Amino acid sequence: MAQQVNEWLIALAVAFIRPLSLSLLLPLLKSGSLGSAILRNGVLMSLTFPILPIIYQQKIMMHIGKDYSWLGLVTGEVIIGFLIGFCAAVPFWAVDMAGFLLDTLRGATMGTIFNSTIEAETSLFGLLFSQFLCVIFFISGGMEFILNILYESYQYLPPGRTLLFDQQFLKYIQAEWRTLYQLCISFS
């Protein structure tokens, strides 16, 4: 019984890593926009429950030995979550940058305010555009899309699988940054 509880807790910890690292970049799931870190962790815990039996069946505990092999597992999960969060956060960062650019062009850069969704200071138009995008994101089913990507990532990249960081990966990251700046200019 105690062994099963330990196995379920390890599976829960492994399942929690990817959504947690996703939430560190996605403005909608940051603790500032949800009210507190406890509430954010509760939301993230509820996101891990659908995938928990699948991770438990993969017997992740077999991969975790007495040595430091679990560091590779944790690092891989964090990187996958960051990549999903990075791709999902690009439009939010772009509209905030566009608002900041518009406020700079109209000479209102001294009036920065704190934006709780991105947990940073922003301009008035940046906050307006960010809030507007949040509403559109939820209305158009964006959160469902993000959750589908998160759950499908467990199918394509199961925990413990090695990640390859080759030239294609770097080109992908470069293309995402280019998209961020193109969206910023086009939104403004």
Automatic annotation (TrEMBL):
Keyword entries, A-Z: Cell membrane, Membrane, Transmembrane, Transmembrane helix
Subcellular location: Cell membrane
Protein name: SPI-2 type III secretion system apparatus protein SsaT
Keyword ATP-binding set for record: no
Gene Ontology CC: plasma membrane
Single Gene Ontology BP annotation: protein targeting
Membrane topology summary: Multi-pass membrane protein
Family label: Belongs to the FliR/MopE/SpaR family.
Residues passing through the membrane, by range: 7-26, 38-56, 68-94, 124-151
Chief location category: membrane
PANTHER family xrefs: FLAGELLAR BIOSYNTHETIC PROTEIN FLIR, SECRETION SYSTEM APPARATUS PROTEIN SSAT
Annotated source species: Salmonella enterica (Salmonella choleraesuis)
